[in-house]
């Protein structure tokens, strides 16, 4: 939807005062209108506590036929855009509550941002996590200055314990929600992008179960220029935002994958405020495959030297997958919002992405077990400039012919064209060559 006038009226329609359940010890019992002035005030208040991250022209622009500018929010201290909303939220707390402290119950980017900024503001902060949480995440929260408490075997048990501690000790239990304060802080990304990139045609944000960044930034961008397209991107595995927009209320996708690869992209934590803002102000929401996200992560690592997670890469994935052909030749900003990927996952993701990009391939063939035959195969691989990663030989269970050896090779190539050339060369010399399909 394009907004051509009455920005404040549309925002007022989008955000109504929605009471929170009395059992929830949250920041506010009622949300007010998020106005452009609220976002401007948030930008002024948090300017000394968060980075004004660069929004730089990308080398990927030529590859995808548009001017791409990357807003590098993963350069924030905790590696996540969530710092903006968290800092403004903490600074807005009454002094009495700041003295008592806050408590969170997860190992998400939101919790790490709370741990860091609460410590910086000298607010006592406690993080409750399940015993299955990765030790590195627990250590990070402690390094930021939080008291990390391991409790229970599931996230639900950790949350119940955190709520109990909050009630007993007067802490404020925080979880990522769509209060006006939090959305205003996140909306400062939209302000910065507008300032940094003149003549913008579109801005792409991650969406999914956490659309506060999308909703808050859309409010800022549409006020400044109603003709800028605001686009959200979520995973095909759990298109919760699209389902919720269709239903008219937040819905939970039972197929949501809680694998750490998806992190803050999966699940549902947005409320009616974020959903209504998104429905009113966001022009389009698209879904991408897991394969597209992995390729996007690979492109960012190679072309931008940026190590990001699924949430950080999902916006670019829409361009990688060709989901937005209408942006060809346009000036587009993509928000790269998070870079918190565990090391073992990073290795797996890059290895898998290289395979999906047809740059690591595997084939099997049978050659005579005679001196010199293996060297002939290696000569072909050397002539075709393929880098050999692994060679395995099987003699005992080869049934095709006697005194033969089955050779399985894993090789690295430059790109899909190079892979096709190698395949043709091998088939010409070894017609029975079989390729392992990805």
From TrEMBL:
One of its GO terms (molecular function) is threonine deaminase activity. Residues 362-438 form the ACT domain. InterPro entries: ACT_dom (IPR002912), ACT_ThrD-II-like (IPR044561), Ser/Thr_Dehydratase (IPR050147), TrpB-like_PALP (IPR001926), TrpB-like_PALP_sf (IPR036052). Keywords: Lyase, Pyridoxal phosphate. GO terms for biological process: isoleucine biosynthetic process; L-serine catabolic process; L-threonine catabolic process. Pfam families: PALP. Coiled coil: none annotated. Its cofactor is pyridoxal 5'-phosphate. It comes from the Eukaryota. This is L-serine deaminase.
């Amino acid at each position: 939807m394009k907004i051509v006038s009455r920005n404040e009226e549309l925002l007022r329609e989008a955000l109504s005062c929605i009471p929170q359940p009395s059992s929830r010890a949250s920041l506010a019992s009622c949300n007010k209108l998020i106005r452009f002035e609220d976002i401007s005030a948030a930008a002024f208040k948090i300017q000394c506590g968060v980075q004004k991250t660069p929004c730089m022209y990308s080398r990927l622009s030529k590859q995808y036929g548009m001017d791409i500018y990357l807003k590098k929010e993963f350069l924030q201290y905790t590696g996540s855009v969530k710092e903006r909303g968290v800092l403004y939220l903490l600074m807005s707390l009454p002094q009495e509550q700041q003295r008592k402290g806050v408590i969170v119950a997860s190992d998400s980017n939101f919790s790490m941002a709370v741990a860091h900024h609460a410590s910086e503001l000298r607010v006592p902060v406690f993080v409750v996590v399940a015993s299955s949480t990765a030790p590195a995440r627990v250590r990070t929260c402690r390094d930021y200055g939080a008291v990390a408490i391991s409790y229970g075997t599931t996230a639900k048990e950790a949350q119940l314990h955190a709520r109990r501690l909050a009630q007993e000790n007067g802490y404020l239990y925080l979880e990522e929600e769509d209060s006006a304060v939090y959305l205003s802080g996140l909306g400062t990304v939209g302000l910065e992008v507008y300032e940094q990139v003149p003549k913008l045609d579109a801005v792409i944000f991650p969406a999914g179960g956490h659309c506060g960044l999308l909703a808050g930034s859309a409010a800022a961008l549409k006020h400044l220029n109603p003709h800028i397209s605001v686009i959200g991107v979520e995973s095909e595995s759990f298109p919760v935002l699209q389902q919720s927009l269709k239903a008219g209320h937040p819905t939970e996708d039972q197929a949501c994958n809680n694998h750490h690869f998806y992190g803050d992209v999966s699940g549902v934590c947005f409320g009616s405020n974020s959903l209504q803002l998104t429905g009113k102000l966001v022009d389009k929401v698209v879904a991408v495959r897991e394969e597209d996200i992995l390729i996007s992560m690979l492109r960012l690592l190679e072309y931008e030297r940026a190590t990001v997670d699924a949430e950080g890469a999902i916006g670019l994935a829409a361009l990688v997958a060709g989901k937005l052909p209408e942006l060809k030749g346009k000036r587009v900003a993509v928000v790269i919002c998070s870079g918190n990927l565990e090391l073992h996952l990073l290795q797996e993701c890059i290895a898998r992405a290289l395979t999906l990009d047809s740059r690591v391939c595997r084939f099997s063939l049978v050659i005579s077990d005679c001196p010199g035959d293996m060297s002939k195969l290696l000569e072909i691989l050397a002539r075709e400039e393929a880098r050999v990663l692994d060679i395995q030989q099987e003699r005992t269970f080869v049934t095709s012919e006697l005194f033969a050896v089955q050779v399985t090779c894993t090789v690295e190539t430059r790109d899909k064209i190079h892979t096709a050339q190698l395949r043709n060369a091998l088939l010409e010399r070894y017609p029975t060559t079989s390729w392992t399909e990805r």
